[in-house]
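Entry for zinc ion complex. Fields follow.
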Amino acid sequence: MTDCLFCKIVSGDVPAKIVRESAGTVAFRDINPQAPTHVLVIPREHHPTAGELAASDADLLAEVVREAHQVAADEGIAETGYRIVFNTGAQAGQTVFHVHAHVLGGRGLNWPPG
Ligand code: AMP
Ligand code: ZN
């Protein structure tokens, strides 16, 4: 998708602080971090939401989640605790419609979220 911000990060047309890459995914630091660790994991292919990716390529969704856990391990928060969030739809706060897993941690996280 030529007008998709995260496709442009995958292609290198928009810079990002990339922390991990796998065959199907790229992980990079959120530009507006909400916690000491705030990394986004995205599939290289464009899929709008987690639900649509689950329906079309469940293995790729599993790769996104595996990589999200690996980010947490790399950041040293796999043991203390972290959160993986897929905001889905406008009311849930999704602003970029290229599916992304937020990996958040490094501080106490409230539940339920606001
Ligand atoms: P969401 O609101 O769930 O769609 O999440 C989109 C996230 O992308 C937000 O947390 C933004 O801060 C983040 N974001 C937007 N533009 C960029 C960018 N150029 N590089 C890294 N993160 C970004
Ligand atoms: Zn995209």
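NOTE: The mean pLDDT is 97.
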